[in-house]
Amino acid sequence: MKLIVGLGNPGKEYENTRHNTGFIFIDNFAKKEGISIDKEKFNGLYKEATINNQKVILLKPLSYMNLSGEVVKKYVDYFKIDINDILIINDDLDMDIGKIRLRPQGSSGGHNGLKNIALNLNTENFKRLKIGISNDKTIDTKDYVLGKFTKEEKETLDNLKDTINNLLYDFLVLDFDKLMCNYNKN
Fold it and tell me: Measured between alpha carbons, how far is residue 172 from residues 42, 86, 90, 102, 157 in Å?
């Protein structure tokens, strides 16, 4: 079974904020599949589904970004998911808006959600899909990531939705090295 986790913060006040990029893209993928991530367990919203002939859980932790790892760990343990079958979708300040990068492992790069996942899983060896949100150095980092997308940024991300959906379909069936070769182009 695969686990795809979209990172974000719960609540209306965080909708369409840069830090909720993971929520935005996992919701879009679910919508494309005609499903809702609407079951609740272990402080997360999830949906079990069969997509591309693969069993998968789509997960949105509801614990706020800094404690995402606690939720992910509970799902990994309960559903007996192998670390190699996890993909975390997160925003990345160090990449231009709309750039994507798959990584098989690595440090948190200062991202508190990834840091907490690594702490709770006791490893940094989990796959991630990093989606660039740029960085405005004139704005405090916390305010920037919790800020809403501009109209132009939203358009850029909207143009990424089909690519991300295809990437997630492919994640379910392709070897990760092949997946990275196909999508790590920019």
Answer: 24, 10, 18, 14, 22
Q: CA-to-CA distance for 58 and 45, rounded, in angstroms?
A: 8
Catalytic-role residue among 18, 19, 60, 99: 19
19 is catalytic: yes
pLDDT per residue over 126-165, tens digit each? 999 999 998 887 777 777 877 888 899 999 999 999 999 9
Question: pTM, whole model, 2 decimals?
Answer: 0.94
According to DSSP, the residues that pair with 127 across neighbouring strands are: 87
Q: Which domains does the chain have, with CATH numbers?
A: 2-183 (3.40.50.1470)
d(CA 130, CA 94): 10
